[in-house]
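Here is the promised in-class demo. Please do not try to memorize the tokens; focus on the logic of going from shape to residues.
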């Protein structure tokens, strides 16, 4: 009898095929009446396969008495109710490392695209403005500027490494100075980090503790010439304060891959011309997503073979 798994979100065919071959997958995301669906499969389900942004709620966890393990397709597990997992002895796995460099690449690309006005430049060519209006307006330099990295974990480190290639003056904030940071400046206080930055990268793992760590004070310290780049989770920024700052000009600009309530976003974002909007795709390359899918499956297989989890969270 194959192990039965609750599948919270869709996966690409190259993952769905092997998952369906190895396990009995219950496609929760396709069910119309989710509550009823959970009740029907509750007696059999021993694992949850989910995505970073979807996670698993306490209600879901507690509806499945045979649940043993939750495998997250993503490095971020903030959407999994870890307290509920602890209460019920549920193991949790994620997909770190395999996505780090792609996420860092996209963050740096977002900085460049936004600072150099490349989206507007594309329209300038396509809509004929280049011939009718002439030269494209000048934009802001990136190289040699001051960068702040909030959260020097795996992703923050790769961002900083890339920024060093742009001769940027790099500082970072974290719970403590990191011995693997070369000559980058440690600045414990996020407000001070923002004050000394032209570009502020938000790269920390989201948790209850980091919620709105980028608050109004941090945003104002970054200032009218500053740019905030978020490739982590929306909850790390006070989105209301961010919107107001972008609208009033107390913050220069932003480049965002994540939003409160995504994929629906606050319509105020759509009115702004000083923000770059990306659809949460920093890990979205064929190579990384294939590696993430394999790691998600390998963790499930390891668990049900009684072997150590490859990338355990809990
Ligand atoms: C998503 C992510 O998991 O890794 C994370 O934490 O947010 C992303 O990689 C991805 O969209 C797949 O759901």
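The designed amino acids, position by position:
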């Amino acid at each position: 009898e194959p192990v039965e798994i609750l599948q919270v979100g869709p996966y690409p065919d190259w993952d769905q095929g092997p998952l369906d071959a190895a396990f009995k997958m219950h496609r929760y995301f396709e069910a119309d009446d989710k509550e009823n669906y959970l009740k029907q499969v509750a007696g059999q389900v021993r694992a949850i396969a989910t995505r970073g942004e979807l996670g698993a709620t306490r209600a879901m966890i507690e509806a499945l008495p045979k649940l043993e393990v939750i495998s997250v397709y993503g490095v971020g597990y903030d959407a999994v109710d870890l307290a509920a997992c602890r209460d019920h002895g549920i193991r949790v796995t994620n997909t770190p490392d395999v996505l780090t460099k792609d996420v860092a690449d996209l963050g740096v690309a977002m900085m460049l695209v936004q600072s150099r006005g490349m989206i507007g430049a594309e329209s300038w060519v396509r809509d004929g403005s280049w011939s009718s209006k002439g030269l494209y307006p000048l934009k802001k330099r990136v190289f040699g500027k001051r960068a702040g990295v909030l959260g020097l974990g795996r992703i923050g480190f790769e961002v900083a490494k890339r920024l060093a290639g742009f001769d940027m003056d790099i500082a970072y904030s974290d719970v403590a100075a990191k011995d693997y940071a070369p000559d980058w400046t440690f600045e414990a206080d996020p407000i001070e980090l923002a004050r000394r930055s032209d570009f502020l990268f938000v790269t920390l793992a989201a948790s209850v503790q980091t919620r709105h760590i980028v608050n109004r004070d941090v945003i104002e310290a970054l200032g009218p010439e500053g740019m905030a780049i978020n490739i982590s989770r929306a909850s790390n920024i006070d989105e209301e304060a961010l919107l107001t700052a972008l609208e009033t000009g107390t913050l220069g600009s932003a480049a965002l891959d994540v939003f409160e309530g995504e994929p629906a976003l606050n319509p105020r974002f759509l009115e702004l011309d000083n923000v770059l909007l990306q659809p949460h795709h920093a890990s979205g390359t064929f190579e990384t997503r294939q590696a993430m899918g394999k790691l998600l499956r390998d963790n499930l297989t390891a668990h049900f073979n009684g072997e150590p989890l490859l990338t355990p969270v809990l």
